[in-house]
Design goal:
The complex is a heterodimer of chains A (450) and B (456). With 450 residues, chain A is an alpha/beta fold. Chain B is of the alpha/beta class. Chain B has two domains: 176 residues, Rossmann fold (3-Layer(aba) Sandwich), CATH 3.40.50; 247 residues, Dihydrodipicolinate Reductase, domain 2. In chain B, helix 7 runs antiparallel to helix 14 and helix 10 runs antiparallel to helix 14. Chain B starts with a helix and ends in a 20-residue tail after the last strand. At the A-B interface, strand 8, strand 10 and helix 15 of A face strand 8 and strand 9 of B.
Amino acid sequence: MKDEKKSKSISRRDFMGASAAFTAFTVVPSHVLGGPGRVPPSEKLNIAGVGIGGRGEGDLHECGSENIVALCDVDDKYAARVFKKYPNAEKYHDFRKMLDNQKNIDAVVIATPDHNHAVVAMAAIKRGKHVYCEKPLAHSIYEVRKLTEAAREAGVATQLGNQGQASEGTRLVCEFIADGAIGPVRQVHSWCNRPISPRGIERPKDTLTVPDTLNWDLWLGPAPYRPYHPCYLPFNWRGWWDFGTGVLGDIGCHQFVSIFRALKLGYPTSVEACSSNFYEPAAVTEQTAPKASIVRYDFPARQGMPPVKLTWYDGGLMPARPEELEEGLRFGNPDDNLYIGDKGKMLGHRLLPEARSKEYGKPPRVLPRSPGHHKEWINACKGGEPAGSNFDVAGPLTEVVLLGNVALRMGQQLYEKGLKLHYDGPDMKVTNLPEANKYIRSEYREGWTL
Amino acid sequence: MKEKTRREELADSKISRRDFMGAAAVAAFTVVPRHVLGGPRRIPPSEKVNIAGIGVGGRGGGDIEAVSSQNIVALCDVDWRRAAGTFRRHPNAKKYKDFRIMLEKEDKNIDAVVVATPDHVHAPASMMAMKMDKHVYCEKPLTHSVYESRMMAETAREHKVATQMGNQGQASEQTRLMCEAVWDGAIGQVHEVHVWTDRPMRGINGLYWPQGVERPEETPPVPDGLDWDLWLGPAPYRSYHPSYVPFKWRGWWDFGTGALGDIGCHRIDPVFRALKLGHPTTVGACCTIVNDETYPVASRVTYEFPARPGFDPVTLHWYDGGMKPPRPEELEEGRSWGTNGILFVGDKGKMLEERLIPESRQKEYGKPPQKLERSPGHHAEWINACKGGKPAGSNFPDHAGLLAQVVLLGNLALRPALKEKLTRVKLHWDGDNMKVTNLPEANQYLRREYRRGWTL
């Protein structure tokens, strides 16, 4: 495998990849060596969109300063509006054909359902295309790892679609915590209570005719075959384990980014999860994510910071209302983070209570501000510094998010066996319950490879 | 005042051994009005209690068996199909569909009733019986609403009847050990308790009952043998559907009290006893999407209790629908836990159910000094009390009334109409006055209107 890849693409790009790999985790390589698709700042990028009907439309809109040269979607009906919006873009159903046939593509924006992220992104990266990929980076931990490595090797500019990373709020969280505003942080609670799509249900039994406008086989991509049903698309695939990654996968990459940055998190040592899927039959638990869940991660001490427990809630669950929050103030944002330090608490980037927040004011500004999430990536594609959620950063983040789903899928076994999952992050392995590892990498359908 | 005097006169005029007995029982409860009309029949220990069952098909069948050492004189159920087994086992008992008719007709033959109807009928049945001076064993949760629980406790006290709620775990060795360990200071001051259940959904036993669902639209015919109107009792009218009866009524706001109501009275009971809890000061909750028909699929309810003599303030977290507290670090790797449980978090240690964790700590500690009398059995306690013995462990006035009020209060915090407001406040609870003080609209859920023809 390695040899094959090398023989195909030995180039300056490989130097670039090697040096990026060396430094990527901490410092940004400022020297960018061109590589295929490298575009000078004065020119426009040629961007292809894959999966354009839903969130993809918004992503392309954000890249509107550039040339949108190709659009790919398996669902003509869902994508029709976007196809119309970009009359000059070439239209495709199959991203493989698009990448093979159209040579002027510099960069690809991927907003397919989760189960197709990795195959599309990998195909693009292997061809030296820059990649913007919606969150979560991929459907499985294994895929995330492979993408992270491949992007590093190829030296392409990458960005995960967790646009909150570019926000002022994320920077404030980091700056408050770095400034010691709440002391060492030992607990973080993070939640999302958006009703994203149906979960905790069984697979439909009726088989319907695939609409003329949909290429169902391509939509399935690497996922195991199943008959078409409108309960999967558009959008509602998120709750189905074969396609989506539940609420945690959908929103975790947004919610955790501030936590990861501020607390310099890496891999956790252990994780446990409970959910409303407990006690449901396999016909439910093997099919969909739970209606509600709590996932608990333990992170070890790192870089002068004490161990921290990160708890994720979804489906309407939340931590208990903190005493410091004044009566009458809302504690029920559909998504938020609560940081609990030795010297105080912070809700989002607001110190609690209000009086403390007023007294403290703003932390010293130490982090550079972002020109905008998509703009970061466009700049990176043109030789600027790596984007804030480039895969070297977004990869480990997504792996941790998806690890929560591994724990969720183990269901009540964790409680019956009396275990948390002990996790070896670098090795991508649950060490104390080997059967959990089947959820770290999924089999692809015949004809599909990463 | 005038009426009291009249009652006292009446009581005096009927003075008898029975009233002495009543007075003795009263003494045991500590605070009690002396003036009571009549009072229950005096049953010497050598005699049997004449018992009637109300709701005898499901759990009621088990309760009837548990008291079958006594005379089972009448059985009442609105669903004779479901009651058939119990009817067969007690061929001499008279059969009824309407407890009101049974109590009226059999007044002279009945000393005590066992109530195991769906939750929404507990109070009307038990209250009518108590007002007729019948002893009452009532399944948990004591009632459907907070108000009803309060009324049950007051009425039981007033009528000096022997009462017991069906939370049989209260009679267990386990409950006593939890109390004694806490009182012995085995885990220091307790500031946090977690209680969880596998209900409401399928659970380890395969099937409990659905929550988080909408009202069915079909209107199938009422099956033969079921008196649907009587089954509805005081609840608002709706069409029959098998989604409600048997058993699955638990998930519906109009009939049941959800996972918390079903299991809270069992599992919060030891916490109440061990920590000598009273009314909480606040209640808050979070849950999955909830509608006006059924309780949510999963919830967490948090109660804050103030300091009590000898005890620091404590926060109690209730979890259902698969939700659980974090695995305690003290629990040994490989030690199974989690289906249902109680975790006491003290400032000197933790206790999972009645065992200190880790197990090495429990071994080292051994048993706490025995301070509590052991029980002859949950149903036997009640039978003894009916015969003039001391009050049962979960009698309404001293214990179950309060416990049930607090448990049911948690359901207020899950009400869909309050959900948005409850993002801004916790419910502040004035237990003595039975009132939410900071969100007046919450108080409508403490008590509900009965359907015409039904009274408490």
